[in-house]
Amino acid sequence: MNKFSQLIERLKGLPRVVIQAHDFPDHDAVASAYALAYLLKQHGIETIQVYHGVIDRVSIHRMIDILGIPIVHADEAGLRVEDILIVVDGCVGEKNVTDLTGEEIAVIDHHEVTPAAGLWYQDIRPHYGATATIIYEYYQQLGITMPAAVATALQVGLNIDTANLTRGFCEADVEAFAFFHRIADQDLVNNICRNSLESSELPYYQHLLRELRIERGVATALMPADCPKNLLGLLGDFLIAVDSIDVSILACGRPETIQLSLRSERQEVNVARLAQQVLVDTEIGFGGGHAHMAGGVVNLAKLQHADNAAEHVFGLFMQNIPD
Question: Which end of the chain is more exposed for a tag (fewer CB within 10 A), N or C?
Answer without folding.
Answer: C
